[in-house]
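Dear U.,

For the methods section draft, I wanted the exact inputs and outputs in one place so we can describe them consistently. I've listed the two proteins in the order they'll appear in the manuscript figures. Please don't edit the token lines directly; just add comments below if something needs changing.

First protein:
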Amino acid sequence: MSSAEQETDGATGAPLATKSKVLETGASMVQNFAPVKSICAHLNAFHVYADEPHRCVEANHYCTHLNEDVRQCLIYDTPLPNARLIGVEYMISATLYKTLDATERKLWHSHVFEVKSGMLIMPGPNGLPTDIWETAETTEMEDVVGLYGKTYHFWQVDRGDKLPLGEPVLMGSFTDAEQLEGTAVEMLKDRDERYGVSTEQKKRKRGYIAEPEVHEDADQCWKK
């Protein structure tokens, strides 16, 4: 059977050969993966397709802070070792967002609803008491709520693609509870069960977080 006829970890291709495993192990012991080691946060939420906003996909963000105004995140379909890299997201402060021209601003989405609704979570480590972790998570949300994100997905795993096909696709975020329907509701429920969290409980805990005004040029996928 050829590689094109096989599937491994959700992708077309043959399983890793012994030689590849040995080289992979050796490289991991001697090489310096500094950019990846700078990742300091794992965030989980859902992205919507900008040209099909009622179609969404779960997104695990692994983020690095370049500075106080810029973050960059690798987006994976799951938090597991065999996760597929499906996209990237850049997050910037409102201060930087306002310096962009109107055309550029329309490519970015807000995080206000994701934070305030409890949809955006920072999965906690096993063994740490929930109350302690949620305090840290809520503090992180105080910063994220005012950020704008620009996201492109390369791999449309939700439609069953076994390779990253076609052009990169601009993504957005949910901005209102009325946008959640059908599949999205079930996906959110399933996510909460897997991580042992409650979106509603997080919504209540974040009630005190100030809700910044969202720029009129953001979240264009819901304004078409």
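Second protein (the one for the lower panel):
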Amino acid sequence: MATLNPLANTYPMPPLPVSKKEFCIAGIITTVYGLDELDARVQDVACLWLLHPRLQTQECMAPVAASTITAWREEMQKPKKEKALGLICVSFDQRNHGSREVDALSNEVWRSGNETHAQDMFASYQGTATDTSHLMDYIASYIFPASEHLIGSHLVLGVSLGAHAGWHCIIHDPRITTAVVIIGCPDYVRLMSDRARLSKLATWTNSKPPGSSFLGSTDFPKGLMEAVARYDPAGLLLGEVASRPDDVYDRDPTTSEQKRLLPLMKKSLQGKRILNMAGGADKLVPYDCGEPFLRWLKNATAPNGWFNEGGVVFEDIVFDGVSHSMSPDMVREAHRFVIEALEQTPTETAGRASKI
């Protein structure tokens, strides 16, 4: 069962085109948007990484690149705009997608006959986050070989599968300071448990109570659980679902829990900005799957939260009636958030509290 393109109806009118150039970096076809639009007199450049949905290719992110670059250029033309900063966008095919596809079935879900759906999807987008970091190491040497410009900041915007990867990027790479996460989920265990229930997997239905033996089964092996605990935002910060206290989402961590959490939070989220957007009618990636973790993160980063000095800006918006798609309203919010991030100085960002 193929997933419809979440960006199919995002742009009622095609955005104004911008320049694009392809580079082969570390064997990955990497597309860079907006190089020709850069002002030669402006040295500093921000780089927005665009991560595409499952069963799509990097090409579907071209309108996102064009509209975002245009929005930033229009913002810079307004009176009293003193900050000189260029913006480029970068996309590439996720693992086993587009030019990198090896096995089509591995991109499908359980209902479509892929018995290793849970392993395949997590490995794919966690690998995409790794690829993003790897490309960041080298991209300047390809696009600015004479040091014509300096990439001073990195942002990420992901949709669906790309949004899952976007959570990993913002959590694990200190160079990425802003993430726009669109119809993604930060809690892989809850997402896949819900999908296993709906798919009526035997490893879910043949246990009492249903689902009690799913984690650690052949559909969600122990090795995958270990990877989730290392890389998944909820897995990393809250631990395995089975070991989480029932009230963990709604209370402050205990003293012993904070001793473990504070270094992780500082390393993963200090001074970062995250905009999470979800469709209220999304059945493929239901907001409810990520909501407990998102609620926990809101409580932690709120003005009176236990991590309120972390300088985290966190916004969580649910769009009523929107299914698994990137709506035009989401585009407007994404533009606003990216522009706000680009206009911040490091000092200003560090002093901001969470916005919910």
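Candidate sentences for the figure legend, describing the second protein: Strands lie at 20-25, 28-33, 44-51, 86-92, 150-159, 176-182, 273-279, 313-319. Residues 29 and 126 are 19 Å apart (CA to CA).

Thanks,
Y.
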